Amino acid sequence: MQAIQELLKIAVIVYLIGLQLVIILLLVKPQIAQTINYKFGVGPKPKYYDFALSKQLLNDHRVPQGAIIFIGDNITENLDVSVISPKAVNLGISKDTTVGVLKRVPLYDSLTRWSAIFLAIGINDLTIRKEPIDIVMTHYKMIVAQLPAH
After folding, report:
1. What is the pTM for the complete model shown?
2. CA 61 to chain CA mean position, Å
3. How confident is the model at residue 44 (pLDDT cuts 50, 70, 90)?
4. Which of 2, 150, 10 lies closest to 67, judged by CA?
5. What is d(CA 76, CA 14) in angstroms, rounded to the nearest whole number?
6. CA nearest 144: which of 110, 123, 121?
């Protein structure tokens, strides 16, 4: 019985030390807490998302007529689309979801000047947010419906 009490004391001490380390880490690096909250579906997207979107919108007027536009998440963001065409534009944002793309598509004036648009989005919906495939497909259809047709 005494051995169990000693193990329990050690477990409580280890737990409290671990808890203190987590609190210190979250105070030193608050973006970790924001990312964790986002992954569990609570809280806003990390600040990087806002920065990347702002940068894209600032350069939106530079997108040439006949552009090949890539819209998506980190997989898209990490593509070197310039090897496809000198008119290729990368609108990928890390950690984005179909809901994020649905919200940002109306913000791009450049989408009226496209010759092709590639959508590569949904993996974060399925793997991180655990959205059902039918919800992701509904979002896809809504995104496509927002794109200018020609």
Report:
1. 0.68
2. 23
3. low
4. 150
5. 42
6. 121
The upper half-sphere exposure of residue 72, i.e. CA atoms within 13 Å in the direction of its Cβ, equals 19
Residues 98-149 pLDDT 10s: 999 999 999 999 999 999 999 999 999 999 889 999 999 999 999 999 998 8
pLDDT (0 to 100) of residue 45: 60
CA distances to 40, 82, 146 from 89, rounded to whole Å, are 31, 8, 18
CA 18 – CA 24 distance, rounded (Å)? 10
79/93 Cα distance (integer angstroms): 11
Identity of residue 3:
A
Q: 70 to each of 45, 85, 101, 118, how far by Cα in Å?
A: 21, 11, 11, 5
Tokens of 44: 């806003």
